[in-house]
Design goal:
The structure holds two protein chains of two kinds.
Chain A: H1 2-12, E1 19-24, H2 31-43, E2 61-70, E3 73-81, E4 88-90, H3 91-95, H4 101-120, E5 127-133, H5 141-152, E6 157-162, H6 171-177, E7 182-185, H7 194-205
Chain B: E1 3-5, E2 11-12, H1 18-21, E3 30-32, H2 38-68, E4 79-83, E5 86-89, H3 91-95, E6 101-105, E7 108-111, H4 113-117
Parallel strand pairs in B: 4-6
Antiparallel strand pairs in B: 1-2, 1-3, 4-5, 6-7
The chains are: A alpha/beta, B alpha+beta.
């Protein structure tokens, strides 16, 4: 309520507020790839490292005052790339990627701590991009729980169906699963449709 | 119209001798009942007795059950350590405004005190919180 009041006052005096934009979603959906794409497009620097091993991002990555632009409209965001949210973290999954047991176990602990951190940050974000993998089934407990809770907290959401460059991608399944939210299908890796996403961010979350 | 003995509850008609001479229980006090339906009164008393007995038996059963099987209800854990390096996260509980509780192993819990004092809003854990170790 206070956040909304502050934004209202800022707008009243012609100042555009900065918003804290959290990138949420399950692991390996391309959240960091998207964060990197946004940062590269508007600041020329990447934010975090990308890996095929799940839970690469285990701490909240922040990039402050990123000014995004579309068709002459501007908006300043503080970008927060969140650790992937899952209901189970198993070190054995990491060992399949050639990781040593000791390292995999440490990664598992850090990933679990990261999930707690990501959820803690829900109280401090103004808006969210919820990123899904278009090649995966959208009807999962994690997806429904994340979206349901963001909605309950009154946080504006854009559902982002990522990885549309991959064979077997079915972004329409994600759109049909969550029709009540703003929706954009993109390939963060190839930059496809990211312009549409910037437009949505400025128009729907600004 | 009926008169009810205030001591034993026996009912007498308007013209009964006992109203003047006294009830057979010895009492001389009678309560005048304007509209009295004996059947209705009996049914009401019967219901009260049945309810009383049912409640008494239910309480007795509950007490006995509690004595035989004392059970501690504990369903608060947000994170379960299935084995070292394997964690099960209950997102629903983590998102609720309840303290962060890690079940280190069956029956052993770690309660995150910061989240306890801030009604669950301060949920941060360290890696050590996930380990089965004795508290310093």
């Amino acid at each position: 309520m206070l956040k909304r009041f502050k934004r209202f006052i800022l707008r009243l005096f012609g100042k555009k507020p900065e918003i804290r934009l959290g990138i949420y979603g399950p692991p390996n959906t391309g959240k960091t790839t998207l964060a990197n794409r946004i940062c590269l497009d508007f600041t020329g620097e990447e934010l975090g490292t990308v890996s095929e091993v799940p839970h690469e991002t285990r701490e909240v990555q922040k990039k402050e005052r990123v000014v995004i632009e579309h068709n002459g409209k501007r908006m300043t965001i503080n970008l927060l790339d969140m650790p992937g949210i899952s209901t189970k973290v198993d070190y054995k999954e990491f060992m399949k990627f050639g990781m040593k047991k000791k390292d995999a176990m440490l990664r598992s602990k850090e990933a679990t701590r990261g999930i707690v951190e990501a959820i803690k940050w829900l109280d401090n974000v103004d808006a969210c991009l919820v990123v899904f993998d278009s090649t995966k089934n959208p009807y999962t407990q994690v997806n429904v729980t994340i979206l349901g809770n963001l909605e309950a907290k009154g946080i504006p959401i854009i559902v982002v169906a990522n990885k549309i460059d991959l064979k077997g991608a079915e972004p329409e399944k994600i759109r049909d699963a969550f029709p009540q939210y703003h929706f954009v299908e993109i390939s963060a890796k190839e930059g496809k449709n990211v312009d549409k996403l910037y437009k949505e961010i400025i128009e729907k979350l600004g | 119209m009926p008169h009810k003995c205030m001591k034993c509850g026996k009912i007498y008609g308007d013209d009964a001798e006992e109203i003047l001479g006294g009830c057979e229980c010895g009492s001389n006090l009678f309560l005048y009942r304007d509209k009295f339906d004996e059947k209705e009164e009996l049914e009401k008393e019967r219901k009260e007795v049945v309810e009383g007995i049912t409640e008494f038996i239910a309480n007795l059963k509950r007490d006995v059950k509690a004595r035989i099987r004392p059970k501690v209800e504990f369903d608060l854990e947000s994170i379960r350590v299935l084995e070292e390096g394997v964690y099960e996260i209950d997102l629903g509980k983590l998102l609720k405004d309840i303290p962060l509780v890690v079940e280190i192993k069956e029956g052993k819990y770690r309660i995150h005190l910061a989240s306890l004092f801030t009604k669950g809003k301060e949920k941060s854990i360290s890696i050590k919180d996930l380990e089965d170790r004795d508290e310093e």
